[in-house]
C-alpha cells in the first residue's frame, strides 16, 4: 500500500500560554477530499499553516508525500497548493501575469496554455488583462484559487474557500474540487459549514480548541451531527 500523502504525528503548536494545536495525529490518503470542520479559533488555519511552512510548529512530525519536513522542508512543499483565507496578491499585475509569476515561484516556466486553462476553469477569461486591484471581491477570490492551482499541485489546501462568496462561485468551486479529486489530486479544506463538508468530503475531521476530536467517514459524522452529539462536544 502506498504511504499517505500527508501524515501528522503529535503535531502541537503553542503561542505563549495558548495551545493552538494539541497533539494532532492525522493521515490523509491520495485522492481523497478531507474536510476539517470547526468553529472560530479551533486551530484549522494553524494546522494548514504548519504544513505549508507559514507557522513554525512547536513539536511533532509532519510527513508530506512520505518525507519528513524536518529533513526536507522545501522539496515536498513544491507539490502543495494553498488557497488562503485572506486575499493576497500584487494588485498591479494583470490576472494572467499573476498566474505566470506564480508558476515562476514554483520553478515552472511561463505556460500560456496552462494559464488559459486556469482562466477558463475559474471563469476569468474576460479578466485576463485586468489588473488585480480592479477586480471585484468574487473575481479576486477566483484569481486566488487559480493561483493556488496553476502549478498542478498534488495536494491542495483550501482554507474556508467559500466564506463570504456568492452562490455561483460556491457551486463552481465545489464542481472544480470534485473534478480535481477525480483526477487524483488530494484536497484538504477547512470550513465552518456542515453543508460544505456534506457536499464534498469523503472524510471529515472535527477540531475544537486545537484538539482533533474525531475523524470519520462523512456519513458517520453527519449522523452524529443529526443526533446533536457534536454540539454537546463543542460546548464542553
Ligand atoms: P477561524 O475559523 O476563525 O479562521 P481557525 O480554526 O482557523 O479559526 P486559528 O486561526 O488556527 O483558528 O487559531 C487558533 C488559535 O490560535 C486561536 O485561539 C487564535 O487566536 C490563536 N492564534 C493564531 N495565530 C496566532 C498568533 N500569531 N499569535 C497568537 N495566537 C494566535
From TrEMBL:
Protein's UniProt keywords contain Transmembrane helix: no
Highest taxon listed in the record's lineage: Bacteria
Domain ABC transporter: 6-234
Molecular functions per Gene Ontology: ATP binding
Keyword terms, alphabetized: ATP-binding, Nucleotide-binding, Transport
Protein name: ABC transporter ATP-binding protein
Species of origin: Hyalangium rubrum
Range of the intact protein held here: 1 to 236 of 311
